[in-house]
User: Which sequence fits this backbone?
């Protein structure tokens, strides 16, 4: 009898990254509330890069997309209900290349958003280096998998996973023709869902996509949920992980400064626990922290949200309680 040993990973991982590229991605055109584009600067002003250096990381700040205006086309009419597709597509294309370069150098690509439409670029970048073994853990109140037909708002931050999984390939959206659908739906898992549109529920069901909602967090506890989520996408814990963390996954009492808050979310500790468990796998190669909007809420709300944004990133990058 031979024991099952997981086959050696075939992706080109040099060593667990010790350097982190912090990509400021000031993209706000994927939704309608201004201010989300200022989050990368506010997070850095709060000392995030220094904190990561103190954790032993070599930090490289990438400000290529600190200002997205150079990518704004002169003419960008709606396509159906979808707003600013050419602009959002062009910024994501540039972002994909930045993430690719960091990953190709063996660095962890940390993207500070910006709205969640930027995940089209970040995951395109990470899959271009790590291929279809890349797992995505998507922590969010929303499933962000609307098609261009099902999107109720026309906001592209509700659509990135539909674009990445190529669920509607018969006609790629203008601006996104460059996207290569490398991410596999078996390699995607959600944690924290509680505001999923009817059309999205159907898409999740028809494509058999694994999702742990807040119901599951209540029923099983966060420890079991994270274990089941990782078992689904990464059973031997040998595959590279891209963590896409939307701050609205947290309860609005914990992280109020965000554009689409939904009550009934993750507690402070549950949010951090997800990051700690992913850090413990040693497989994190990319992370997005998105939807912090410093313009929403009062000074206390902002301080609270920015602080928790920084501490989630620190936990994912190895900070422990003891
Ligand atoms: N990344 C987010 N906060 N997404 C919110 C999406 C809300 C809604 N499902 C929509 O498609 O418009
Ligand atoms: Mn969300
Ligand atoms: Mn989101």
Assistant:
């Amino acid at each position: 009898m031979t024991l099952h040993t997981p086959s050696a990973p075939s992706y080109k991982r040099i060593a667990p990254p010790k350097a982190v590229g912090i990509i400021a991605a000031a993209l706000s055109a994927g939704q309608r509330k201004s201010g989300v584009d200022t989050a990368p600067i506010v997070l850095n002003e709060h000392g995030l890069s220094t904190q990561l250096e103190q954790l032993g990381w070599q930090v490289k700040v990438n400000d290529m997309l600190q200002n997205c205006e150079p990518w704004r086309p002169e003419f960008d009419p709606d396509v159906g209900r979808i707003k600013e597709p050419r602009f959002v597509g062009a910024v994501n294309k540039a972002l994909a290349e930045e993430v690719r370069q960091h990953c190709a150098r063996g660095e962890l690509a940390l993207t500070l958003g910006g709205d969640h439409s930027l995940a089209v670029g970040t995951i395109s970048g990470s899959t271009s280096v790590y291929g279809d073994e890349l797992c995505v853990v998507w922590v969010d109140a929303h499933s962000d998998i609307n098609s261009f037909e099902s999107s109720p708002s026309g906001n592209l931050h509700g659509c990135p996973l539909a674009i990445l999984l190529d669920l509607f390939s018969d006609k790629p959206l203008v601006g996104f023709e460059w996207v290569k659908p490398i991410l596999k739906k078996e390699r995607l898992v959600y944690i924290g869902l509680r505001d999923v549109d009817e059309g999205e529920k159907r898409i999740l069901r028809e494509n058999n996509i694994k999702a742990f909602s807040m119901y599951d967090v209540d029923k099983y506890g966060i420890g079991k949920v994270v274990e089941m989520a990782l078992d689904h996408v990464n059973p031997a814990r040998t595959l590279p992980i891209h963590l896409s963390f939307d701050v609205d996954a947290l309860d609005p009492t914990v992280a109020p400064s965000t554009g689409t808050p939904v009550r009934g979310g993750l507690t402070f500790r549950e949010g951090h626990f997800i990051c700690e468990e992913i850090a413990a796998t040693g497989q994190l190669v990319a992370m997005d922290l998105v939807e912090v909007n410093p313009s929403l809420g009062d000074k206390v709300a902002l301080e609270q949200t920015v602080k928790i944004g920084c501490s989630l990133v620190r936990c994912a990058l190895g900070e422990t309680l003891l």
